[in-house]
Amino acid sequence: MRSEDRSNGVSMPVTPLTTLESGMGGWSRRGGFAGRAVTRRGHAIVYIYGARPNFVKMAPVLRELRRRFPALRHVGVHTGQHYDREMSDVFLSELGVPEPDHLLGVGSDTHGAQTARALERIERVLLSETPDLVIVPGDVNSTLAGALAAAKLGIPVAHLESGLRSFDRTMPEELNRLLVDQLAEWCFTHSPEAEENLLREGVGRERIFLVGNTMIDTLVRMRPRIAGSRVHEQLGLPADGYLLVTLHRPALVDGPLLHGALRELNALSEAYPVVFPMHPRTRARAGGFTASSPRLHLVDPVGYLDFLALESRAAGVITDSGGVQEETTYLGVPCFTLRENTERPVTVTHGTNRLLGLRVAALREVPALLETMPAPPEPPEGWDGHAAERVADVLAVGLGRGALRPAALARA
Length: 412
Ligand code: UD1
Ligand code: UDP
Description:
This protein is of the alpha/beta class and 412 residues long. Helix content is 41%, strand content 13%. It has a 7-stranded parallel sheet, sandwiched between helices. Strands 10-9-8-11-12-13 form a 6-stranded parallel sheet. α1 packs across α16 and α3 packs across α4. The two termini are 36 Å apart. The N terminus and C terminus are likely disordered. Uridine-diphosphate-N-acetylglucosamine binds next to α1, α5 and α11.
């Protein structure tokens, strides 16, 4: 990592400006960067991530683009939206993500304050790094801040996992998705309905690329190491026949439903042992609840390898996580989603996901539902471990033109 002045938590790179041999045609963006005179530092891609699911989605793309385009600078920016070891560092090390070049230390706050802090700090990085392209994954506040900072500086944005819609604007993620897709030049999608959603919102077809699921790329690559996890022994769980739980959405955990869900899980553990690695948001709101059943294991969040080991061998998974709905679809593990809607309907139509609604009493139905779950279908098209390669193929077209810009912008 570069040495940085973190006196105010803002990343200030001190390396001298350099021009790298990139082998690409020259490109100057007059009037870009909000009209500021800048010295370009050689062609670069900036990757913005900061929350647990971001690492899983971005890792294969970063890896593939570094491999395909070694002459470019590949600059990792970690906003610090998530910062506990088990929410952040463990993912970077297990997934082999190089140490980020910039740590922005944004931390937790209200939506406005967190997003604003990320926006301000990302902008400073972009002004100093002068990238040709910014890549953002998913739908968290760091994703919106990254896309907005880049777009306002005239830097093209690529959005991984574009076009997902729950049609529920009370979800903070839905607002982030809608806005980021309006800002992105490249909308990389993982299922056909994402394309339909984008077209309906006026996104031009030439900006949409169905590439598949980069989160599944990570799962496929890590499978041999997942098999070596000893988490079952460590947590005192049987090797299979248990239920895995993750819940962290505000609609469920920020109100009275959480305690109701915990009571239901306590009762459910008579039928199946239950393991619940608790997101820090959930843990903070579960205060006062004590499991009376020794078969309900409330534990801290676990790293990627251990979590996937738990997910792969569970009898069923109870969740409100977006990523977990996708991973269980790929793994063919029955998934029960405690939400009224999902932005990932493909996990219901082509996977093993079943929406229970926001009704914690529905957890009582899980044992009976498990008896009747149909055999797992094939994973959706493009959920095959090669999505990042397809992302790189698309971006290589821009590189071949001498600029990482789509044709429309190159003519501007
Ligand atoms: C965020 C995303 C959500 C995503 C989830 C993945 C937004 C709007 N939400 O929700 O879409 O599904 O990440 O996990 O971006 N905290 C810690 N340690 C940490 C991180 C958070 O203790 O390392 C606690 C803090 O009390 C914080 C709370 O968790 O206030 C919520 O964190 P935040 O990043 O704001 O939202 P998430 O609920 O994690
Ligand atoms: N995950 C993990 N440990 C946990 C819980 C989740 O490694 O204790 C992984 C999970 O396998 C998936 C990602 O984190 O790869 C999903 O993140 P999360 O559920 O926090 O966010 P969402 O997908 O809902 O945005």
